[in-house]
Amino acid sequence: MRVRAAILNEVGAKRPYATSRPLTVDEIELAAPGPGEIRVRIAAAGLCHSDLSVMNGDRPRPVPMALGHEASGIVEELGAGVDDLAPGDHVVLVFVPSCGCCLPCAEGRPALCEPGAKANGAGTLLSGARRIARRGAAVNHHMGVSAFAERVVISRRSAVRVDKSVPLDIAALFGCAVLTGVGAVVNTARLQAGQTAAVVGLGGVGLNAVLGAAAAGASAVVAIDLDPRKLELARTLGATDTVDAREADAAERVRALVPGGVDFSFEMAGSIRAMELAYKIARRGGTTVTAGLPNPSQLWSLSPVGLVAEERTVKGSYVGGAVPLRDIPRYIDLWRRGRLPVEKLVSGRIGLDGLNEAFDRLADGDVVRQILRFD
To answer: Which residue among 23, 47, 178, 243 has the highest number of C-beta atoms inside a 10 angstrom radius?
Structure first.
């Protein structure tokens, strides 16, 4: 089958991407699904900083690569052995396939699946296969999904079925932004009602952390960013206070709002400066959670004295510590009840041919979530 897809041909292209065009829309050959795989017609895909991090080299991945990892779609074809889905089912795609057999999966931590991580790093599906080619040459998969395409072949373990009443452009957000941001609050931090939180970095994931903290019943949710527009948006999503990260006394301002510091601080910007700020604003005995992914060459310096003497905790959170089969339906239910109004994060909708320009807007911080649509 031949379909159109956006292919990343080089890493580290100069900006603006509207001029350098690192993504090209090509016709590719999509193989039939193998055993344990499915073919999905993509309905919507979100543009995420994780895609941008592959483009700029912060997240090294093999190229050429069919980009995109946050998406929803409709099942069209089943590979051998797939008997729990049917053509026509609506699914949210998950960017870490879980084998169900490795130690992390056995411990209930599928986001840390070892074969899934290996496959994602190699640019293959969970099976180790590549189902994409361009003029006969293999193309790598992005996170087992490659959602910037009209149709994809993925592992069955990269999809979660959702109710058909959920609009597919909204459903797409639950595959990454919601799963990661809300999950960091409820799974990794396990924030309880009445506790306090601060979120540093208000992109799609950070704003979902704000939503998650508000939904969990935090008594204070301090939103911190460089952009006044995002600070204002955070207030509409449940932030009780906002702080401009450009201010030299940002940490002191947070500690004035929440005396002693917050119970949980969340670093969602993917920068060392943001991590330093997040650590400063957590209270004695508090926890700092990071879901940001800076370039691997960046290092954060930490004195063990404060960590020990103040009994601090620093935790990483990947995919929000999610169990997607459990969490996606739960988060969608919260959305239905108005507790997670993620539709407010959508900045605009685009087509395949507008991706390079859209990633310029994302890199400039002018948008939260742009949705690629195929209708």
So the answer is: 178
Print the domain residue range for 160.
2-175+341-373
In tens digits, the chain (375 residues) has pLDDT values of 999 999 999 999 999 999 999 999 999 999 999 999 999 999 999 999 999 999 999 999 999 999 999 999 999 999 999 999 999 999 999 999 999 999 999 999 999 999 999 999 999 999 999 999 999 999 999 999 999 999 999 999 999 999 999 999 999 999 999 999 999 999 999 999 999 999 999 999 999 999 999 999 999 999 999 999 999 999 999 999 999 999 999 999 999 999 999 999 999 999 999 999 999 999 999 999 999 999 899 999 998 999 999 999 999 999 999 999 999 999 999 999 999 999 999 999 999 999 999 999 999 999 999 999 987
Give the pairing type, strands 196-200 and 220-225: parallel
- Statement: the pTM of the whole predicted model exceeds 0.90: yes
Q: Are residues 272 and 351 in the same domain?
A: no
Residues 132 and 190 in one domain: no
Same domain (yes/no): 276, 251 = yes
Rounded distance, CA 118 to CA 116, Å? 5
* The two three-digit tokens of residue 38, written as one number: 């499915």
d(C-alpha 162, C-alpha 169), whole Å: 13
Q: Tokens 């292919």 correspond to what residue?
A: 7
Closest C-alpha among 195, 180, 148 to residue 373:
148
Cβ distance 238 to 340 under 8 Å?
Answer: no
Q: Does the residue 325 lie in any domain?
A: no
Same domain, yes or no: 289 and 267: yes
The domain total for the chain is 2
CATH classification of the domain holding 310: 3.40.50.720
